[in-house]
Write a structure and sequence with these properties.
Layout: E1 5-9, H1 14-26, E2 28-33, E3 44-47, H2 53-63, E4 67-70, H3 81-102, E5 105-111, H4 133-148, E6 153-157, E7 160-161, H5 168-178, E8 183-186, E9 190-191, E10 194-195, H6 196-207, E11 213-217, E12 223-224, H7 225-235, E13 244-247, H8 265-271, H9 278-290
Parallel strand pairs: 1-2, 1-4, 2-3, 4-5, 5-6, 6-11, 7-10, 8-13
Antiparallel strand pairs: 9-12
Helix pairs in contact: 1-6, 2-3, 3-4
The chain binds NADP nicotinamide-adenine-dinucleotide phosphate.
NADP nicotinamide-adenine-dinucleotide phosphate (NAP) is lined by residues 10, 12-16, 33-36, 48-51, 71-75, 87, 109, 111, 157, 159-160, 168.
């Protein structure tokens, strides 16, 4: 049997940094990017613009992959509401329509930010109620994907972090500190950060399962944004030098969902794997580092 072909969109993303090397071990990998081909670490690379339906359809119908992991998106701070709708919602619809056309298994990467943060802990199939443009574009993407491709797996994830490349959130904190500004981290915002290595493994397992619908994939451990930020800064040996403050988002940033605890029992049982929390990952990290894995 020939090795199945997997197309990963957003191959040049932060997630792609961890996902592509693992995917290349199992699949004939094709990684799609938009503007950063240099960030593609494994597989054959292709480029398309998700806002161009003809382009998306051409790439997918010519390649005819057995599976697609759709990870590309505009994240908060990377574009306005119209751009988020065009890339995240419409682009996801184009990918799902083309996946349906060629009969590809589709695993779509969504977010915990589809929720409003007032009804945690969220079950896998909790209906979205987004508070901000990004959440709205991703919630609409989920609906568009499942309408075009009802057998797709839609994976709601939390903040992604890895230990060999700094996550975007921590990188932003470092930039702020380096420019001499004070950094305020929220003690009333709850998240379940997901280790990029376990997220990559979970997405690849989902490719080979016939699960359809929404599934939470996040780390087991609930942390405040402040706790998580401090742990990551410590991992990267960044000393805030007295410029880190604890603050509250409530009442000031109404578009930030406060409590995004997710239930992950179903994912752990379906995938047959543990989704370790941040402390567990960090505790085993020194040994991994010693063995050259980071
Ligand atoms: N990072 C997190 O903590 C987090 C949390 C929850 C959910 N997610 C979701 O996880 C996925 C990966 O996130 P990430 O943070 O790893 O992404 P990222 O590093 O911000 O990268 C975004 C990716 O999307 C691609 N892209 C953007 N606009 C495009 C367009 N018009 N056409 C084609 N590709 C386009 C980019 O390609 P180029 O760079 O080549 O232009 C890049 O590969 C996304 O679906 C995101 O919504 C992320």
């Amino acid at each position: 049997m020939p090795t199945p072909t997997l197309l990963v969109t957003g191959g040049s993303s932060y997630l792609g940094h961890y996902l592509l090397p693992a995917a290349a071990e199992q699949f004939n990998l094709v990684a799609a990017c938009h503007t950063h081909p240099q960030n593609i670490l494994a597989g054959k690379s292709v480029s398309f613009d998700l806002t161009n339906q003809a382009d998306v359809r051409r790439v997918i119908t010519q390649l005819r992959p057995q599976a697609i992991i759709h990870a590309a998106a505009i994240n908060p701070g990377q574009g306005d509401a119209a751009r988020m709708t065009a890339v995240n919602t419409e682009g996801s619809r184009f990918v799902a329509q083309a996946a349906a056309e060629v009969g590809a298994r589709l695993v779509h990467v969504s977010t915990d930010v589809v929720h409003d943060g007032h009804h945690a802990p969220y079950s896998d199939d909790a209906p979205p109620a987004p508070l901000n443009d990004y959440g709205r574009s991703k919630a609409a993407a989920e609906a568009a994907v499942l309408a075009a491709c009802p057998q797709a797996a839609v994976v709601r994830i939390s903040l992604i972090y890895g230990l060999s490349r700094m996550d975007r959130g921590t990188a932003g904190f470092v930039q702020r500190l380096e420019s001499g500004q004070t950094l305020t981290l929220w003690r009333d915002v709850l998240r379940q950060p997901v280790w990029a290595e376990s997220l990559a493994a979970a997405l690849l397992k989902l490719v080979n399962l016939d699960f359809a619908g929404t599934l939470n994939v996040a780390g087991r451990q609930v942390l405040t944004r402040e706790e998580f930020g401090r742990k990551m800064l410590a991992w990267w040996n960044v000393d805030p030098a007295g410029r880190l403050e604890s603050g509250r988002a409530a009442g000031k940033y109404n578009s930030v969902p406060l409590d995004l605890r997710l239930r992950v029992e179903r994912a752990e049982s379906l995938l047959g794997m543990r989704l370790p929390g941040v402390d567990e990952v960090l505790e085993t990290a020194p040994a991994n580092r010693l063995h050259g894995q980071f």
